[in-house]
Design goal:
Elements lengths: L2 H15 L7 E7 L18 H8 L2 E3 L2 E2 L5 H10 L14 H4 L18 H7 L3 E7 L18 E5 L12 E4 L2 E4 L27 H15 L5 E6 L11 H4 L23 H25 L6 E7 L20 H4 L14 H4 L3 E4 L8 E3 L3 E2 L3 H9 L13 H6 L10 E5 L5 E6 L2 E5 L11 E4 L15 H14 L19
Parallel strand pairs: 1-8, 1-9, 2-11, 3-12, 4-5, 4-8
Antiparallel strand pairs: 2-10, 5-6, 6-7, 9-10, 13-14, 14-15, 15-16
Helix pairs in contact: 6-8
């Protein structure tokens, strides 16, 4: 019997022998395109996030935590599989209806049958498992279907493109389409020159309300069982679709001009208030989850993690200050001074607000400067719950630093990003040093850039000329760590093409 299977079977038997009240539940809450500086505990001044701030005050706030990738699907692949982008099966946002329209009408490139996920580890250990929100790792019926990747329950958007609408025609409950809106509101529209009216973009059934309701129902139903809940909300990813009551909470004088759709998605009459409303709503969902745990007596044995899949939305055309979908990161200081946005391997595209709470195990109101990223959560959650760690994970357990509050001095595993989209990019973090290459899929690939994040978190001063040794070290790491992936190829200069 293979060693991995033996370990997992042993874990399942051990888990079954323990009473439910001795097992640690896990809720992983994932925001969508939430910027590093868009939460109060991470410096946001305009948008109130009281529930997230309270979560940070009762747990640990990470200041150097990174997503798995600078866009949705590959970031979630890293999180679910514990494989960094050099080994991940999914390294970009690939729409299956364009690749194989005869088989698929929605969804992204699927995880393979052999891909082993965090949910599968929990399920084999006797946990009840649910994914609620946005999936993006394989259409219904494919090898990447969430029900085939360890989740007993899936409720939400299977496809990222469908999730551009907050009033969609349907959501999925496992393999069943649940019709929501006979007259759905599209997530995309042509720019308008006429008056922009909020009511023109409000539908009948608001999908996020159903998803947070489902999460509360799941927690209550499983209060006597150990559970793993992956709660992947869609806020604040555009389109900008928050309810009028949420928009009206914010000052009228914030908005002196409407967003007319010139940077894609749908128009909005009050884009600043609309964007703030989405983050405020997200914060309220976190508050409801925490309240439900308290109500069910589950607070002290439930590990809650909050993070975001990548940085805030990237710029639109040069003719407007509005970013994609009407977001305005400058107005909210969304990156808190970090360079870059979603789609970039600079800090603003990858560094994400991250919080972890488990009373009695994780010290309250602590700040942890240890570098970490999404590949670390698989081994970390295994350690937190007593599950054996599968072989060949790329991440490093953060559980020791979480529980002791002692910073992680030196990582034994490298941190790297190999991203074939947005012209092709790679990044490697070595201690406080960050190395970046851009434009690898163009005729003029960029040179290595080197930044010292301790003294230059904004990545403003390139010191590559004085660190040739670090460049050689980064290239050696990439040579060792990047496996071939013909579906998502990326040529990296000085790395043999046979390796990629």
């Amino acid at each position: 019997m293979p060693r991995l299977l033996t370990l997992l079977l042993s874990a399942a038997l051990l888990s079954q022998s323990l009473p439910a009240e001795e097992k640690t539940n896990v809720i992983f809450i994932l925001a969508d395109d939430l910027g590093w500086g868009e939460v109060g505990a991470f410096g946001q001044k305009k948008i109130p996030t009281p529930h997230l701030d309270a979560l940070a005050a009762s747990g640990t706030r990470f200041t150097h935590h990174y997503s798995g990738a600078p866009v949705c699907a590959p970031s979630r692949c890293v999180l679910m599989t514990g494989k960094h982008l050099g080994h991940a099966e999914v390294r970009g946002n690939r729409a299956m209806e364009k690749v194989d329209p005869a088989r698929y009408t929605e969804g992204q490139h699927p995880l393979s049958e052999k891909a082993f996920t965090l949910a599968m580890a929990f399920k084999q250990a006797g946990y009840q498992t649910a994914a609620i929100g946005k999936w993006g790792l394989g259409p219904v019926g494919s090898s990447g279907d969430p029900n085939r990747k360890g989740f007993d329950l899936f409720f939400g958007y299977n496809c990222q493109a469908v999730a551009h609408s907050y009033y969609p025609p349907y959501l999925w409950r496992n393999n069943e389409k649940i019709i929501l809106n006979q007259n759905p509101i599209p997530g995309h529209a042509k720019p308008v020159t006429s008056d922009v009216k909020l009511e023109d973009w409000i539908g009948q059934t608001y999908a996020p309300s159903l998803m947070i309701n489902e999460a509360e129902t799941f927690i209550e139903a499983q209060k006597s069982n150990p559970f793993f809940l992956y709660l992947a909300f869609i806020e604040p990813h555009v389109s900008m679709h928050p309810p009028k009551a949420s928009v009206d909470q914010f000052p009228a004088d914030w908005d002196t001009e409407p967003y007319r759709g010139q940077s894609g998605y749908i128009p909005h009459p009050r884009p600043h208030a609309g964007y703030a409303a989405m983050i405020s709503d997200l914060d309220s969902y976190v508050g409801r989850v925490i309240a439900k745990l308290e109500q069910q007596g589950l607070t002290d044995r439930t590990l809650v993690i909050f993070s975001s899949d990548n940085g805030t939305t990237h710029p639109g055309p040069a003719t407007t200050h509005f970013h994609i979908g009407g977001a305005d990161p400058a107005f909210f200081n969304s990156t808190a001074g970090l360079r870059g946005y979603k789609g970039s391997v600079y800090e603003g595209g990858l560094r994400v607000p991250t919080i972890a709470k488990l009373p009695g195990k994780i010290p309250a109101n602590t700040v942890n400067h240890s570098p970490g990223y999404f590949a670390d959560w698989f081994p970390t959650l295994c350690d937190a719950t007593g599950l054996p760690k599968p072989e060949n994970l790329d991440g490093e357990s953060l559980w020791p630093t979480l529980t002791t509050g002692t910073p992680l001095k030196d990582r034994s595993q490298p941190m790297l990003w190999v991203f074939p989209e947005y012209k092709g990019q790679v990044a490697v973090r070595i201690g406080p040093m960050k190395l970046v290459r851009q434009n690898l899929k163009t005729k003029t690939p960029g040179p290595w850039e080197v930044y010292n994040l301790d003294t230059d978190p904004a990545e403003a001063t390139d010191i590559a000329s004085t660190h040739p040794d670090l460049i050689k070290q980064a290239e050696a790491i990439l040579l060792r760590e990047v496996a071939p992936n013909p579906t998502f190829p990326l040529p990296i200069p000085n790395i043999p093409q046979s390796q990629l």
